[in-house]
């Protein structure tokens, strides 16, 4: 083979690796965009009234993110097409085969490209459909234990309790819940609360439904032997496999030695700390 042919082949291989790097970069950007889209979807799912409050601003933000995801996907497709063309050139008769080690790198990039495409195919729900799903999810909580903020919005401090969902009204978007602990008058109190004051717990018996909180994360957790939830800090990011407990330190839970005790709390009694939590 002539030196010019060898040089052209080397240039094609170099171009393949450059475009492979570009595919990796595009995927990282898409991961960031898709993560933000999912974050907004989750926020809408837990607090559907945000559509009414934020209105066009929130939907405009979602639209912008979808446009970015679309542009990134198109750039990824263009880059992939260039890679295919370069590979076809190298595979023409008379040109040397690509070394096995280089082929492996190219195959890995192609696999990453497929994952990017799969990640970008997110269902795009209309606001009305999204709200309907959220209402269905809320209605499905009947009979379940949930975390509920029972004090008024203008209260100085938040009070979160474990309560049982009795009913969900789709029209008013309110939960009727029961505090199964009796008060001093031997009465179980009932509350009517908006969706924004309710947080479902992970499903009991399904550890995979629980969130893995990083070390130092702030959470809202049921204090052992009570039905009240308080702010706590994750001191062990890995739940124990046998019990699936989190290891937490509760704020203001000072022990006899002046240190915060580390307490094990079941995974189905821990949720993310709500925004604006008042202690």
Automatic annotation (TrEMBL):
Biological-process GO terms, alphabetical: chromatin organization; response to stress
Signal peptide range: none
Ranges for domain SGF29 C-terminal: 136-279
Record localization: Nucleus
InterPro entries the UniProt entry points to: SGF29 (IPR037802), SGF29_tudor-like_dom (IPR010750), Tudor_SGF29_rpt1 (IPR047288), Tudor_SGF29_rpt2 (IPR047287)
GO CC annotations on file: nucleus; SAGA complex
Keyword terms, alphabetized: Chromatin regulator, Nucleus, Transcription, Transcription regulation
Protein name: SGF29 C-terminal domain-containing protein
Originating organism: Acorus calamus
């Amino acid at each position: 083979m002539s030196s010019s042919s060898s040089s052209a082949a080397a240039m094609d291989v170099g171009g393949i690796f450059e475009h492979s790097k570009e595919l990796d970069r595009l995927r990282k950007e898409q991961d960031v965009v898709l993560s933000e889209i999912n974050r907004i979807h989750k926020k809408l799912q837990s607090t559907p009234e945000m559509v009414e409050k934020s209105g066009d601003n929130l939907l405009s933000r979602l639209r912008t993110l979808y446009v970015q995801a679309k542009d990134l996907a198109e750039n990824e497709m263009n880059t992939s097409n260039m890679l295919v063309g370069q590979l076809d050139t190298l595979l023409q008769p008379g040109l040397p085969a690509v070394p096995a080690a280089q082929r492996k790198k190219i195959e890995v990039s192609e696999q990453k490209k497929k994952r990017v495409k799969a990640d970008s195919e997110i269902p795009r729900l209309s606001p009305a459909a999204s709200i309907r799903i959220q209402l269905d999810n809320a209605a499905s909580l009947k009979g379940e234990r949930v975390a509920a903020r029972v004090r008024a919005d203008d209260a100085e401090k938040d009070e979160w309790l474990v309560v049982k969902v009795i009913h969900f009204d789709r029209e008013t978007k309110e939960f009727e819940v029961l505090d199964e602990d009796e008060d001093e008058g031997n009465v179980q109190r009932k509350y009517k609360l908006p969706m924004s004051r309710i947080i479902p717990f992970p499903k009991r018996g399904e550890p995979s439904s629980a969130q893995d909180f990083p070390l130092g994360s702030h959470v809202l957790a049921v204090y052992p032997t009570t039905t009240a939830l308080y702010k706590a800090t994750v001191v062990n990011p890995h739940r124990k496999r046998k019990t699936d407990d989190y290891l937490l330190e509760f704020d203001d839970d000072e022990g006899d030695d002046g240190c915060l005790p580390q307490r094990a709390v079941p995974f189905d009694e821990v949720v993310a700390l709500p925004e604006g939590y008042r202690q």
